[in-house]
Amino acid sequence: MNAEYGKVYLVGAGPGDPELLTRKAVKILRMAEVVLYDDLVSSKILKLCRKKTELIYVGKRLGQHSCQQIDLNQKIADAALQYKTVIRLKGGDPSIFGRVGEEVEFLLNLGIECEIVAGITTASGAVASLGFPLTHREYSKEILYVTGHGKNGKNSQSFKNLSCEGKTLVVYMGLNSLKEIVDDLVESGNPESLPVGIVENATLAHQRIVTGNLGNIRVVAEKSEVSSPALLIIGDIIDYYLKMDSLRALIHRPYTFS
Ligand code: SAH
């Protein structure tokens, strides 16, 4: 390792709720001299850093993110030249659709020591906070994590020839391609009645889920004005969620005299 450089921690910030940070992430956040953070990292999490920590926003709003990764890699390396403890803070788990591989490779090529710190991915955080699982022996025995956003902004090919039977399909970055995803899944032979849930702002105070099926989810999403960040969850597990949700509603119904 190159002694001129500090160490870079590539840390998962979880889906939003600061309570879902790992203890390791909190420990490192408190040590950090500089934090380079993404769009989906909540301000409550950044507040855990010391006052003197330099916070650098490197999210997509800075520009065309497809051509920006190389500049970002360089920014992290520059920070490591200046500081001993650098955090690259990413939403969810850095290992899931987080480009952590590209960053690690760039840093290691320069001889910079780096360590990945796992986070809770949005899918796990979202379903837990809504009270249902990703797998269930009677509803779903497999989970498929897919991105709706392919490289260079093209739609992902992952939905072609894909049967969702017995599976939970979780789509990250899928809201903008909802139409194409639904069309591909129907074309692949999935029934229009296949349940779909869209979880908006998972684990945050303003979390919301809207549900429908392949046949109507676009209309439902438009009517309910669903916006980013949002995660698509497709499969029979959404039926299970609805079943549990109605049981919960009974428990929470205020007591009335008959
Ligand atoms: N590494 C992240 C995913 C990065 S891709 C993880 O493990 O969760 C970014 C996508 O994640 C968003 O487009 C959205 O689909 C999803 N996402 C992230 N945070 C979210 C949140 N709080 N609520 C809903 N979806 C979220």
Automatic annotation (TrEMBL):
UniProt-recorded name of the protein: uroporphyrinogen-III C-methyltransferase
Keyword Methyltransferase recorded: yes
Keywords, comma-separated and alphabetical: Methyltransferase, Porphyrin biosynthesis, S-adenosyl-L-methionine, Transferase
Gene3D superfamilies: Cobalt-precorrin-4 Transmethylase, Domain 1, Methyltransferase, Cobalt-precorrin-4 Transmethylase, Domain 2
Transmembrane segments: none
Its EC number(s): 2.1.1.107
Pathway: Porphyrin-containing compound metabolism; siroheme biosynthesis; precorrin-2 from uroporphyrinogen III: step 1/1
Alphabetical list of Pfam families matching this protein: TP_methylase
Signal peptide stretch: none
CDD domains assigned: SUMT
Domain Tetrapyrrole methylase: 7-217
NCBIfam families to which the protein is assigned, alphabetical: cobA_cysG_Cterm (TIGR01469), PRK06136.1 (NF004790)
Acetylation among keywords: no
